[in-house]
Amino acid sequence: MQRDPEAWDNPLEFQPERFMRDAGKVEYKGNNYNFLPFGSGRRICPGISLAEKMILYVVSTLLHSFEWNIPHGTTLDLSEKFGLVPKMQEPLIAVPIAKYSSSGHYL
Ligand code: HEM
């Protein structure tokens, strides 16, 4: 359903901005069957509230604290392989470089 071209324009294209166009209106708590990131019904993810509170904090802290690279001499390959959930064809190797010392000073 989340890949149905009748519900989504170019559903297989990575377009995170599609969610920003109607930010605030995107329903993800199991009532909009076009978009079920946490599932639906009796087995819906019980961690939604925690995820809502933590995800922005965790992702922004990782982006703020580290510069992210891929190993030298490699290229980024975002192709997927078929499965129950999409997995990367080639595993992503991300190399974090700390921006701050343990005392909090910019390196
Ligand atoms: C962005 C974060 C998360 C996403 C996208 C996510 C997504 C999902 C999905 C799709 C399911 C299956 C629902 C279904 O079968 O209909 C699930 C189940 C579950 N999730 Fe999450 N989840 C997230 C975070 C969390 C967190 C933070 C916790 C706990 C602290 C959690 C605990 C669980 C548990 C225990 C289940 C099994 C529920 C059951 O089978 O009855 N999840 N989650």
TrEMBL record:
<dbReference type="GO" id="GO:0005506">
    <property type="term" value="F:iron ion binding"/>
</dbReference>
<keyword id="KW-0503">Monooxygenase</keyword>
<dbReference type="InterPro" id="IPR036396">
    <property type="entry name" value="Cyt_P450_sf"/>
</dbReference>
<keyword id="KW-0479">Metal-binding</keyword>
<keyword id="KW-0408">Iron</keyword>
<dbReference type="GO" id="GO:0004497">
    <property type="term" value="F:monooxygenase activity"/>
</dbReference>
<dbReference type="InterPro" id="IPR001128">
    <property type="entry name" value="Cyt_P450"/>
</dbReference>
<comment type="similarity">
    <text>Belongs to the cytochrome P450 family.</text>
</comment>
<dbReference type="Pfam" id="PF00067">
    <property type="entry name" value="p450"/>
</dbReference>
<keyword id="KW-0560">Oxidoreductase</keyword>
<keyword id="KW-0349">Heme</keyword>
<dbReference type="GO" id="GO:0020037">
    <property type="term" value="F:heme binding"/>
</dbReference>
<dbReference type="GO" id="GO:0016705">
    <property type="term" value="F:oxidoreductase activity, acting on paired donors, with incorporation or reduction of molecular oxygen"/>
</dbReference>
<feature type="binding site" description="axial binding residue">
    <location>
        <position position="45"/>
    </location>
    <ligand>
        <name>heme</name>
    </ligand>
</feature>
<protein>
    <recommendedName>
        <fullName>Cytochrome P450</fullName>
    </recommendedName>
</protein>
<dbReference type="InterPro" id="IPR017972">
    <property type="entry name" value="Cyt_P450_CS"/>
</dbReference>
<dbReference type="InterPro" id="IPR002403">
    <property type="entry name" value="Cyt_P450_E_grp-IV"/>
</dbReference>
